[in-house]
Every structure is written in structure tokens, then in C-alpha cells.
Amino acid sequence: MTTSLAQFLEDTSSDEQSIKIIHSNIERIQTLQNQILASTSLQQEASQGEERNGLLVNTKDLLFQMKDRIRKIESENARLPATDSNLTVRKQRIELIRERFTDVLEKYRAVQDSYINQQKDRMSRQYRVVNPDASEQEIENYLSDPSGQPFQQALLRTDKAKDAMAYVQQRHGDIILIEQTIAELAQLFNEMQLQVEVQDTVLTEIDEKVQIVTEDTEKGADHVGRAYELALAARKKKWMTIGIVVAFSSIKQS
């Protein structure tokens, strides 16, 4: 059921507030991840990671809720007749919300891409400390699986093998978590883009149908007009004939 314009505006104001909360979450996530990158303590890193992970879950929920909200409103708008006096306002509002939402998605993805790259760079430097002669392929293999035997063997040659392995495992788990977040963001972004394409297709089909109806209506009007003209002409001829007959009868009687 489509809401009144006043209720619609109130609801979309609430949606804008949700987007602001998402934006605030992203900024806090970015701050925590910068602290994680600068951390030299496993305990401190774990504490920062715990707060960050809670924000990841909360932000994910808010993002998917917002996606569903946008889809719902756009579906409602699509069902409204073109003559609805509120349709233009509704379309403008949801377009603004969609734009702000996609901007937030882009920002979040950029934040997480940057963090992943910095974390991988950090792990690469750590590996080179343990194994200075490592090739690029070795480092790539290590980033994919830091628990592999070559790295563990390299660690055994150091005095702090146990601590180093703990750092590596924690950071690798962190990378996997953020990569999953990035994949979810990509899926969400693609869904939003697909939604726009589907709506554009529907709008194009509607425009085409409106054009066909308009042309048919105009043709119908032309046919009606022509029929009307023919009817008038026939009626005129009829009255002319009657007039001639009457005139002839009058002459004959006189």
C-alpha cells in the first residue's frame, strides 16, 4: 500500500539518517583499521579488531536494509499512475537517497581496498625480514597461505618464531574477513546497478506503450473526425435532396 506524501517524506528522512549512521560507522571502521595497522601489540590489535568486527556486522545489516528500502519505494513508485500529483516528488527523493547510498558503498569499498593493500604490504615486509631472498612468487604464495611449510621453516630460523606466527595468523584471518566484506559490497553494488537497468527497461517499455497508445488515439481521433465529416456531408446532401424535392413539389402544386 502506497503511503501518503507526508508519511513518505518522514520515512525517507529516516532513511537519510540511516545512511548517515552507515557513513559514521565507515569512518570509525577506517580509524580502527588504521590503529590496527600501526599496532605493535597482539592484545591491542585483537581489542581494536573486536570493536571493528562488531561495526562490520552492524554496517552490513544497515546496508542490506537500505537496499531493500530503496527497492520497496521504487516498486511503489512504479505502481503509481503517471498522473499522480506526488509521483515527481517521490521519484526525486528516492533518486537522491539512491545516489547517497551508492556514494556510501563506494566509500566503504575504497576504505576496505586500501586496508587490504596495506595489510598485505605489511605482511610482505614481515616475510622479507624472515626471508630476505624471497621471490615475488614466494611472497604471493605466502599471502595466499601463510601457514604453509616454506614460511614456517623460515620462521624456525628466527628467535621469535612463535610470536611471528601468531601475528601472521591473526593478520591473515583479518584479510580474509575484509575480503569477504569487499565481496559483499561488490554484490550489493551490482544489485543496485542491475536494479537501475531493470527500471530503465521498464520505463522504456512504458514510454513505448504510451507512444503507441498516443498514436492509436490520434489515429482513432482522425478516423472519428473523418467519419464525422462524412456524416455531415451525407446529412447535408440529405437536406439538399429534401429541399429540392420540397421545392419541386411546391412548383408542381402552383
TrEMBL record:
One cellular component term from this protein's GO annotations in UniProt: endomembrane system
SUPFAM superfamilies (alphabetical): t-snare proteins
Membrane topology classification: Single-pass type IV membrane protein
Pfam families assigned to the protein according to its UniProt record, in alphabetical order: SNARE, Syntaxin
Molecular function terms from GO: SNAP receptor activity; SNARE binding
Keywords for the protein's UniProt record, in alphabetical order: Membrane, Transmembrane, Transmembrane helix
Signal sequence bounds: none
Superkingdom of the organism of origin: Eukaryota
InterPro entries per the UniProt record, alphabetical: SNARE, Syntaxin, Syntaxin/epimorphin_CS, Syntaxin_N, T_SNARE_dom
A Gene Ontology biological process term: exocytosis
Protein's cellular compartments: Membrane
Name of the protein: 3584_t:CDS:1
Species of provenance: Diversispora eburnea
